[in-house]
Amino acid sequence: MTQPKIHIIGAGIAGLSAAVFLKKAGYPVVLYESSKMAGGRCRSFYDDGLGCDIDNGTHLILRCNTNVFKYLKIINARSELVPFSPRYQFHDFKSGRQWALNFSNIFTLLFSRVPNIRRRDFLKLWHFFFVSPEVSLAKVFGNTRFYKNVIGPIEHAVLNTANGEGQAKLLVPVLRKAFFKRKGAVPYLAKTSLRDCFVDPALEFLGHKITYNKRLKSIDCENETVRTLSFDGEHIDVSKDIVVFALPVWQVAKLMPGFSGPDEFQSIINVHFQNPGFHQRHFVGCVGGIAEWIFICEKTISVTISAADRYKDLSQEDITKLVWREVCAVQGEKFKQPKHQFIREKRATFHQTPQQVLKRPGLATAYKNLFLCGDYVNTGLPSTIESTILSSKNVCQKIKGERNDI
């Protein structure tokens, strides 16, 4: 039986992983990308000022992210991730105190020594596992030291929300896998760049069969089927094929009348500094300042600021100066501010509040031959690379199960 052709719109991680899974399943795949490069928010590029490659943003992968590792195994890029210790180091800018949270398992976490946190405070996590979808982290933990020093950094990193705004239930599967899967919380970072890890190996696996600078303008539908994809000056008949939208949710909303999905977003700021001489690659979680995570690499120091809409009234220059002071405070050394690159991703993720999470769509649409994948699609996981790749895998499984009905 001849497999239907799959047209994938968008070559970010959602589109690339969907193409990889579908090609492995034996489907002919056509990939379209509106820009001149693949990767989306996982793109990397050479920065002339810093004299090296930098990533759009730093992404931390956990060992329990099984779908990420499955994808990397298929494209033969598993070795492009480097593991670190599950003892996460933290620094409080207000008090100057430092501590470590040992996420090896739930028991090592309980015995982690955190300033002003009692061991019994960790018992709050038990109630946390049974919250309803309408409950925010603020309602579970309040404005407590336990939230500030333990839950807050996790909320910032995983949900890209702040001040307890995030949906509590969305963190449950992450913590459950991290605590109860063997070595689940072991963190990994890309050895060289996100491009070398997630993008280039996928393009090689796909035979570099991708059309760049190809923006989808509209779709024509009839009888619950997408009939035509309209690009600039070109119309492609897909009435007997399958279409996968691997696009940001706001672009999906423009292309599909009546579509309903998350419509509020949060930004992330990444500031990449030229490394002035700090040694030993590592990362540090931060509280009490602007920086959320500081990643010390061989050539760069990358600072991530999650839920960055909080700082929209601060100038780029002011933010850069403040976070560099924080970098020096963490390292215990003062260096003149080096060359840097400031990147603000204005719609990095949808705003993962209880109200917005409940708006996440499924992978199926009102059209029999059109499916969705991306970090906004409802997988039960936060808007992360793991969720993105899981949505792509689910689309592949859905197409394999329904191809005779399309």
Biggest sheet, in brief?
7 strands, mixed
* Total count of helical runs of at least 4 residues: 12
Second rung of CATH, namely the architecture of the largest domain? 3-Layer(bba) Sandwich
Full CATH superfamily name of the largest domain:
FAD/NAD(P)-binding domain
CATH topology of the largest domain: FAD/NAD(P)-binding domain
Estimate the strand proportion: 15-25%
Count of beta strands: 20
User: For the residues shown, what is the average pLDDT?
Assistant: 92
Enumerate the strands of the largest sheet in spatial order, edge to edge or round the barrel.
8-7-16-17-18-15-19
- Tally of domains: 3
Describe the global form: globular
Low-confidence stretches at least 5 residues in length (pLDDT < 50)? none
Secondary-structure content class: alpha/beta
Would you state the CATH class of the largest domain? Alpha Beta
Straight-line N-to-C gap? 14 Å
C-alpha-based Rg, rounded: 22 Å
Share of residues in helices: 25-40%
Describe this structure in words.
By secondary structure, the chain is an alpha/beta fold. The protein has three domains: 6-42 and 193-261 and 353-405, 3-Layer(bba) Sandwich (FAD/NAD(P)-binding domain), CATH 3.50.50.60; 87-185, no CATH class; 265-350, 2-Layer Sandwich (D-Amino Acid Oxidase, Chain A, domain 2). Helices cover 29% and strands 24% of the residues. It is built from twelve helices and 20 strands. The strands form five sheets. It has a seven-stranded mixed β-sheet with strand order 8-7-16-17-18-15-19, sandwiched between helices. A hairpin with a 5-residue loop joins β16 and β17. It is globular and about 65 Å long.
